[in-house]
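Consortium newsletter contribution from the modelling node. Members have asked for a concrete example of what our holo predictions look like. Here is one, prepared for the adenosine monophosphate complex that several groups have been discussing at recent meetings.
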Amino acid sequence: MKCARCKEKAFEKFRGRYYCTNCFIKKYEEAVKSTIKRYKMIKEGEKILAALSGGKDSVAMLSVLSRFGFDLEALHIDLGIGDYSRKSLEISNKIAEILNVELNVVSLKSYGFTVDDVKKKECSVCGNAKRYLMNRFARENGFDVIATGHCAEDILSNFFKNLYSGNVEWSEKQKPRIEGFDKIVTRIRPLYEMSERENLLYVMARDLPFLYEECPKAPSTRWKEIIYDIERKVPNFKINCLRTLARERERKLEDYRYCKVCGEITTTEICQFCRNVMKFRNPQLR
Ligand code: AMP
Ligand code: ZN
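And here is the predicted structure:
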């Protein structure tokens, strides 16, 4: 098999065509760049704090952002999950050195506990600690945005998990850029439209080290498996859902108004019902 761009020996398939390692890297980076542009994820002059866990997704994200030349530093949070955390920190140090990005490390232990001290519901405590520490570090150190390595399957499986458990407010947060307010720093997800397979192949093509192991306390992957199952039956399911989620605005009260024709509540000048009445009006019924 030959590369579709340069006829070198093919490495892997990316969005329907085979590419050599160099062209794969180029195609992948172009795709991330266009995702960042599409969702206006990074504004001019913004200082980015990239959350680096050492897994393939955040390694891919940090690599791409550093190659794009953004004003960038990384943050690793040591959660104190035994050997897993030790290895994550080791890889994060290595990656930051290879990519020549400054790495900051915050340790949950310095707040008096570690994830290993928590007996039940580790994942929610851990998720909360990560969000809290990232936000606080970013704000206290003058960063404008926090970038995380969430990939397409992460976002969709989070969406379905939250929809399933009735957490609608959380579902609304599965967006590429969530504006900060008050003490909350803006968050971005540069890999919003990239799949975990693409991220893995990219770090392999770039020959970057990453932690292959999953967190020993990680929740089951069944929601991700469901996403893959649906995608197999409904091609483009992932990308269409992601784009819908990204478009869906949080409806604020001021978005609502009164229909110019009938006075009922609507989000447009003339409500959908009145537009339908005008469109389908049958003179014989008058
Ligand atoms: P997760 O919450 O494990 O699915 O990870 C989602 C994203 O959060 C990763 O892609 C990273 O950007 C970030 N993240 C997760 N764990 C850590 C960590 N220990 N330190 C810094 N960032 C992390
Ligand atoms: Zn090529």
